[in-house]
Amino acid sequence: MTRPITVGVDGSPESVAAAAWAGREAVRRGLPLRIVHAWHWEPYEIVPAADRDAQARWARETAEGTRRTLTERHPELTVTAEALEGPPVEVLVEEAAAAELVVLGSRGHGAVVGFLLGSVGRQVIAESARPVVLVRSDDRAAAEAAGREIVVGQHGEPDDGAAALEFAFTTAAARGAAVRVVRAWTLPPVFAYSPASLKLLDEAGGLEPYERKALDEALRPWRERFADVPVTEHVEMGSAGQVLLSAAARAQLVVVGRHSSRVVGPRIGSVAHALVHHAPCPVAVVPPA
């Protein structure tokens, strides 16, 4: 079964930009587009509708209006739209399970907007089984022009960032874009050294050559699978969040893996958190495979 790209809309400028981004990406990937308005009736909530029926009608009109706009813009695109009543987190996480990826609007420098106010946006990102892309209201198609890279973070062992690397290379191949793979490193604390780790570092010729070798090994299967995608290896000393944010200033998209923890529950991780709130371009948060 072909998975659609699913976009959550709520009428905000951010969700309008998210829908436009999702439409372009669906065309590039040859996938259908699904538009979802998740809404939850609260009698005392400040909403554009005065009662439940009016709110339901407004939700349907918002979803349908977005569908008409994208169908006119992309006649070749298969687009469906639906207004779904229920707790937004539950609705969007359930929708994500059947999607190739989910696209949401983001204000940046704060919480995700609209029906994702407060902790809802973070929960969707943390719980989604599929990648979630966050798009700012000022995002434009021109930012996807040739010359702007797709930036992706890689860390740890080769398998640790495999899902994020696959997403970045797949997206780059669909766009004819280049990929910059960033691996940030810091000096380990003294107690982290061991005879085994010192032997590995000695064989590699030092810390930075060791990191470069680790990145090269992680990229090997993706270079072979996506031979036509230009790749730049970027190894830099510093915190991962700061290094990726610096690279994101020149990017059309930045991709980061989601933190995985069975101890404290769903988390997006500090690096993803920094990018979601501060990166100037769309951000894709990819769950572990």
UniProtKB/TrEMBL annotation:
Native organism: Streptomyces lannensis
Protein name per UniProt: Universal stress protein
InterPro entries: Rossmann-like_a/b/a_fold, Universal_stress_UspA, UspA
UspA domain location: 1-136, 149-287
Family as reported in the entry's similarity comment: Belongs to the universal stress protein A family.
Pfam families named among the record's database cross-references: Usp
